[in-house]
């Protein structure tokens, strides 16, 4: 089998192999994970089952990355990274809303904490890891400053409108919006996200394509023929199944995670950070693999696109869910979180403006992620 250059796929791809696909792990694991999710949902698991579910969860993450690459190879960039980012975020939103509906008043800040954790993990963790890995391997990483800068500007605007402004409005006491303000934030989030997707996929698609060593954008996804429509559709279905399993099994594992967090003396809010890390594993691995193939722009599309989708889709969904939710909806960030967000945006601007980055920029973003994780443990 000859590997497809730049994507880590093979010409004789398992998904395109007809009946042989049934024998491949990338097909078997998502189905197994879905069955395990159905059997374990809502049940108390013993230590052995917790470990088994964790292994299946890891397999589902790897399967999701594989099928995301198949779909991405078929549709090309930047559509491929958009598929994974939106799929993960839609399922994440569904999980947040479900937990808030069933969790009562103590989940008033769940949406804020989850979205902020996702933003910090994507804009500092995934982005920083991609830059560091690419710089270590190739010396300097190249990307499109126009597209990446537009994505970062959209993330900053979404985060400020939805997570910072509630601290400074006066219609309601505390860090929350009034109903009309929440409606405005939801509509603005959808508009910003929709305009970005239109820009990324239609009007200025070339701003989001990988940049080769010569410095000009190119659309040479690979030298091998892309998978057929049937194979891509099968991978898309398996991708959605794998992502549902990842989020669902992460929820199944949450009692064990909560027990572990309590055992080591961490704050209960750290559970949300752990869940966010698990949910974002597919995108992290996909971005890492793209960075190792000198496709930093694909990695940045994943990182910033996921941050954007986390805010742009979550806030409108939560705004609608408030019709059925009781109690306040706390969206405003705490002071420490606002400082970290401001520092992340500032550093991000300085990172993307040149259109190239070294190990230093990647390391700085990873240190900011470490600061977020440390302060989540020691607020």
Automatic annotation (TrEMBL):
Gene Ontology MF terms in the entry? potassium:proton antiporter activity; sodium:proton antiporter activity
Which chain regions cross the lipid bilayer?
A: 21-42, 48-67, 79-103, 115-136, 148-168, 180-198, 231-250, 270-288, 300-325, 331-353, 360-377
**Taxonomic superkingdom:** Bacteria
Q: Where in the cell is it found?
A: Membrane
The topology of this chain with respect to the membrane is: Multi-pass membrane protein
Record's signal peptide? none
Sorted alphabetically, the keyword list is: Membrane, Transmembrane, Transmembrane helix
Domain Sodium/calcium exchanger membrane region, first and last residues per copy = 48-201, 235-376
Record's Gene Ontology CC terms?
plasma membrane
UniProt entry tagged with the keyword Transmembrane: yes
Spell out the protein name for this chain.
Ca2+:H+ antiporter
Species: Geodermatophilus ruber
Lineage, please? Bacteria, Bacillati, Actinomycetota, Actinomycetes, Geodermatophilales
């Amino acid at each position: 089998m000859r590997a497809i250059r730049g994507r880590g796929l093979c010409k004789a791809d398992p998904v395109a192999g007809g009946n042989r696909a049934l024998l491949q792990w990338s097909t078997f694991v998502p189905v197994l994970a879905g069955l395990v999710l159905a059997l374990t949902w809502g049940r108390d698991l013993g230590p052995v089952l917790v470990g088994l579910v964790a292994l299946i969860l890891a397999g589902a993450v790897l399967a999701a990355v594989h099928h995301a690459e198949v779909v991405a190879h078929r549709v090309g960039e930047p559509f491929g990274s958009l598929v994974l980012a939106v799929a993960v975020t839609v399922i994440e939103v569904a999980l947040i809303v479900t937990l808030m509906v069933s969790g009562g008043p103590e989940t008033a800040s769940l949406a804020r904490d989850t979205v902020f954790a996702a933003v910090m993990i994507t804009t500092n963790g995934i982005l920083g890891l991609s830059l560091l890995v690419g710089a270590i391997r190739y010396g300097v990483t190249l990307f499109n400053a126009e597209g990446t800068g537009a994505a970062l500007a959209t993330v900053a605007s979404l985060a400020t409108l939805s997570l910072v402004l509630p601290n400074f409005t006066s219609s309601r006491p505390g860090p929350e919006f009034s109903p009309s303000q929440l409606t405005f934030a939801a509509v603005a989030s959808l508009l910003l996200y929709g305009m970005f997707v239109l820009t990324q996929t239609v009007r200025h698609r070339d701003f989001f394509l990988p940049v080769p060593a010569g410095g000009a954008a190119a659309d040479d996804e690979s030298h091998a023929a892309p998978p057929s429509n049937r194979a891509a559709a099968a991978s898309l279905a398996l991708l959605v199944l794998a992502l549902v399993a990842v989020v669902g099994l992460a929820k199944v594992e949450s009692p064990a995670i909560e027990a572990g967090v309590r055992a080591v003396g961490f704050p209960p809010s750290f559970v949300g950070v752990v869940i966010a890390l698990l949910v974002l594993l597919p995108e992290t691995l996909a971005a890492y693999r793209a960075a190792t193939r000198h496709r930093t722009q694909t990695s940045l599309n994943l990182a910033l696109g996921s941050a954007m989708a986390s805010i742009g889709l979550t806030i409108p969904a939560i705004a609608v869910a408030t019709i059925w939710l009781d109690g306040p909806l706390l969206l405003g960030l705490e002071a420490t979180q606002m400082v970290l967000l401001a520092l992340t945006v500032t550093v991000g601007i300085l990172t993307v403006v040149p259109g190239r980055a070294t190990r230093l920029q990647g390391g700085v973003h990873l240190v900011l992620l470490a600061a977020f994780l440390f302060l989540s443990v020691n607020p």
